[in-house]
Amino acid sequence: METLRGPTGQTSPSVPSSLSSAECRQVVVAGLATFALHVESRIAALIGEGFYTIGPCGEELTAVFGSLLKQTDAIALHYRHVSALISRQLSAGRPLAEIIRDRARGYVCSVNDPVTGGRHCAIGSRDNPNDFYVTSTLASQAPIAVGRALSVSLSAKANAEAKMQGQLPFSKRLGFGFDHWGGEGAKNPISFVSVGDGSVNNGMFLSAVNMADYARHRKIKCPVLFAVTNNEICISLRGHRWLHSFLDRHQRLTPVFEADGRDLFSVWEQTEKALEETRTSRRPVFLHLHSVPRRFGHAATDRQAAYLSAEEIADAEASDVLFGTIKEAVDAGLVNAQDIRNEWQIIRTLVRSAFEETAEEPKISTREELVASNSPPLFVPSAIKKGGGGKEKRSGKGRKDVMRKHMGSLMREAMRADSRVMYLGEDVRHGGYYAVTEGLSAEPDGKGGWSHRVVDFPPDESSLVGAGVGFAHAGLVPIVEIPYAKYLDCGADVFFEGALLHWCTNGREKIGMVVRLQGFDRGVFGGNFHTHNALHMPPGVDVVCYSNGRDWVRGMRYCLLQAAEAGRLSMVVDSTELLAKRHLFPEKGKDGLWLREYPEVESDTEKGGEGKNEGGLVGLYKDSPEGLLDFDTLMVYPPREGVEGVELEVIEMDGKEESESPTAVPGGPLLVVTYGNGVGTSLRARETLEPSLRASTFIVDCPYVSPGLLPSGLQKLFPPQTAASDGQDSRVVTSVPRGVVFADVCKEGQSPLMARVSQLQQAGRLPSAWTCKAACGSYNPLGRVVTFLSDADVIEGVGEVTKGQ
Ligand SMILES: Cc1ncc(C[n+]2csc(CCOP(=O)(O)OP(=O)(O)O)c2C)c(N)n1
After folding, report:
1. Are 412 and 358 found together in one domain?
2. Alpha-helical segments (H) within 492-645
3. Which end of the chain is more exposed for a tag (fewer CB within 10 A), N or C?
4. Distance 7 CA to ligand 1 centre (A)
5. How many whole angstroms from 374 Cα to the centroid of ligand 1?
6. Which UniProt keywords apply (predicted)?
7. CATH code of the domain containing 689
8. Per-10-residue mean pLDDT for the chain, 805 residues long?
């Protein structure tokens, strides 16, 4: 077996041949700037002008990473590795004064901070799309970095296919200014990610390393370099040389390069070798900088004296990496001592004036600007912009079938239209859970042509979701299937990281991806540990839950367009019960009421145009208003005299159907607002109501469940109470509802419809008679539906709101 590591503590005996004077000087300058910024950040905090003091003091030689990485490599840096970024920016030709000013903006939380716009102090940049943002949640950058590494060859292939189809390259689609990660111009790019030694214990890191090792084992290309700086301390917890033991065991699988983190020549030489190994082998590699001192504690607020002896503190303080580096460089004749002294004076002045200047800059002051940056603006397809109708309509009615068959057909349709669309999951190649993806990997010719686009991952949701985010960074449009809702809990951290990236980066990073969360509600199989009647709905994610196959197809098209054209992240939640549902009242016979026609759309080529698909998904869907279901639209099921054996008529409440004659209901209508399989439950409940109630009950399907946006359909349905009494702005319902039942399939206390209640109430739109019936606030026993929202719950809700009327 190959042994790539030298004995611990070994330093390079001589100057590495590739280290020039200019390069040495750049490392020293980046280190000095890092040190000066750190000192000034503490002064700023003391006088109340700075808000972040975590010290990159001891890690100055990570500047070498920035010097040796290519600009086309992707980086995601540990919070202490500031000098790596400074050096990288110097390599890109940015003036030092600008770099310093921008970093000072981070410390003082100025709105002009190019990384976060004043949201946090973090490493990243505005100029290079390959500098990825890293949050303060330890190691959460690691699974995403592995995802980026896995995406390189796929993205190159998909880009080539897109080009052959005459589509724009990915980078231009989402408006990135540079060649995007893994895109054209990048020769053998690698994904670089760095952490501290304590972070190695975090599940996110272990998950990332496992995925990278797994790829190596399967001979799948995964050019990721994990760099770890080891200061043998994790805030106050000592390292106990655990990292050495971890890497010793790891070396069997992955090459480990080691350098003394205080020694420039050693760090330069080993970093160069580690990069070369990653670039040429296209496999994961470790780089370990040991013996890094941690000077001046973890942060300004750290009480070092509570856990370190006075001697240890003094030792760390005396262990000045910069001083040693400069001495080594001067002795080797690489830099001139006086030059460096002068440089230090300049840097100190630049840093001081940068803080003085930027502390005066405005800070974030309104909630609105923060909320507005949760996710990129919606992409509005041209037909929806025009209000639909007219000759743009190109959708037709296809075969009637169950939801799961339509889902599979939609996947085929989208993947055929756009080479960027990838389907990632667990067990998805053979057909997946409930056979939704059956036959997909064998497409387009039945011979396995899409086996690289329908990808199975091991059952680790952190690396699966991380891969999705990494693929999205490469310009691909991943659909990430989570087999059962409960499993998203295991990948939740990466999911939340993805959700906040647009916000954190002030709109710079976009995650165009769709999570397909399988198994929500009434999945009797597996009890609570598969289906747990709760949803993660962080700001920045559009969560939708459709009630039938036709709506699912139209809604999923819309979500895919949002991912591909706007870079928005959405989550489409399926109800297991609905996947194969055919009948609404099976106890009465085979009514076929839940079979729906496939909403066909006509592609540009089929339309007989010039044979050139103008742009994948957008070319196929943009002019098909009837083929899409946007986030504002509600589906209303008006009262009928019995639904048995009759296809339910659906009225869209999105304003397009204004010509529909309003349905007058004496005494005012009763609304049941619901989503997902709550729609079928509510329709069943309505059938058992007494005739007068039945005749006035509208079932309202509101598939968009995230709290952020109040769908305009709901606003129309619930006009402001005063306006409604003037007869304003009503559509289907002509008078104020006499009562509303919110029938929620999520569990009590976590029900998204309660957020709607509060939004409507605050806007003065909620009538006084309302109730919310949710799934039971407990856990689901195996094989029983007793905890789910039931017909009886809805009936009880109707009784509550009509009592005494
Ligand atoms: C997931 C998570 N757990 C805990 C923390 C709190 N925390 C912040 S910094 C830090 C120390 C991390 O140690 P290490 O990775 O060695 O970094 P360094 O010593 O370079 O600061 C900890 C535990 C966190 N930010 N994220």
Report:
1. no
2. 492-504, 549-561, 576-579, 616-621
3. N
4. 27
5. 26
6. Oxidoreductase
7. 3.40.50.920
8. 37 81 98 98 97 94 98 95 98 97 98 97 89 94 96 77 66 41 69 98 98 95 97 97 96 93 97 97 97 96 95 95 96 97 98 98 96 95 60 64 97 93 95 90 86 94 97 92 94 96 94 93 82 93 96 97 95 94 94 93 55 69 87 88 46 43 63 96 94 90 92 87 49 67 95 94 91 95 93 97 87
